[in-house]
UniProtKB/TrEMBL annotation:
Xref: SUPFAM superfamilies: CBS-domain pair
Name of this protein: CBS domain-containing protein
Alphabetized UniProt keyword annotations: CBS domain, Repeat
InterPro entries membership: CBS_dom, CBS_dom_sf, CBS_domain-containing
Length: 309
């Protein structure tokens, strides 16, 4: 049995539940208005599930703020994980089964974002400082936060990736082995995307290394599953209107072959550089051709934020 994983932020909290940030972070300049990425790709409560998947696939994002049309007032947020839950991985799949009787076309075209979004998103205001932004991301265990003005109008969005780039240094003095996750959850190449979706939701992960005959083959992520539907590849795979048929697609069809690795003795700063240069959000940690861990952007971000001065 695979052990449950703790939320990634917990390891970086003091015993009193507050983040153990270094003095360097407290000295770092920048507020949310400066750090936020713009323009922001948004959606609305009335957008269809297919439209949402199409937009997330087109813009290659894993979260979209939900706004009031023509006002840009924040109403919620929807993530790739929410879509994975709806598309077979979790409790939201009950909507597909009960309301749409498993009909893929009905589930994608007649259901709306309001059914799967989080109506109480974690957000920051434009004046929040870096320390407060990091504290919110750590304690709330979120990797994406919308940035709003005091009246709730959306200004931008901040992701783990943005902060890693802002804080990254060439050398941190902290090894990858110190911050990586060791209980890596993998999936066999013979598995279906339904099984991959269920594992992501059950264990609270967004990515699964794919193994074949005991060797690493590639990776499947929540964004890959969203892209399978949003790019319409799913319609080329199925012959009926049953979503169950779509969910039988093999993970090798949806995931990507190949992966990026790093040595456990490498510096965390090197991990940040590789992620940036390769355009990936995680690295598989390999020692002597054996998978020993995984390091994500969140691990890198918190390591940079808590490294000794």
């Amino acid at each position: 049995m695979i052990p449950s994983r703790r939320p990634e932020g917990i390891r970086w909290l003091r015993s009193d539940g507050t983040p153990n940030f270094s003095d360097r972070i407290h000295r770092s300049e920048g507020d949310a208005k400066i750090l936020a990425k713009r323009p922001v790709y948004t959606t609305t409560k009335t957008a269809t599930i297919l439209g949402l998947a199409e937009d997330m696939s087109r813009y290659s994002v894993r979260a979209m703020p939900v706004v009031v049309p023509n006002q840009d007032k924040l109403e919620g947020i929807v993530t790739a994980t929410d879509l994975v839950s709806y598309l077979g991985g979790g409790e939201l799949f009950n909507i597909v089964v009960n309301r749409h009787k498993g009909n893929i076309y009905s589930a994608l075209l007649k259901e709306h974002v309001a059914s799967i979004m989080n109506p109480n998103p974690v957000y920051v205001t434009v004046n929040e400082k870096l320390t407060k932004i990091l504290e919110i991301m750590v304690t709330k265990n979120v990797g994406v936060v919308p940035v709003v003005f005091e009246d709730g109008t959306l200004w931008g969005i901040i992701t783990e990736h943005d902060l890693v780039e802002h804080l990254a240094e060439k050398t941190t003095g902290r090894k990858v082995s110190e911050v990586m996750t060791t209980n890596v959850i993998t999936i066999d190449a013979s598995a279906t995307i339904k099984e991959a979706a269920e594992m992501m939701i059950k264990y609270g992960v967004r990515r699964l290394p794919i193994t074949e005959d005991g060797a690493l083959w590639g990776m499947i992520t929540a964004k890959d599953i969203v892209r399978f539907f949003g790019s319409h590849d799913v319609f080329r795979f199925i012959e009926t209107d049953s979503i169950d048929e779509a969910l039988k697609a093999p993970v090798k069809l949806v995931g990507l072959s190949g992966y990026v690795t790093i040595d456990p003795d490498a510096d965390v700063g090197d991990a940040a550089t590789i992620m940036k240069n390769k355009g990936v959000s995680s690295l598989l940690v390999v020692k002597d051709d054996e998978l020993v861990g995984i390091i994500t952007e969140r691990d890198v971000l918190y390591a940079l934020a808590t490294m000794p001065d």
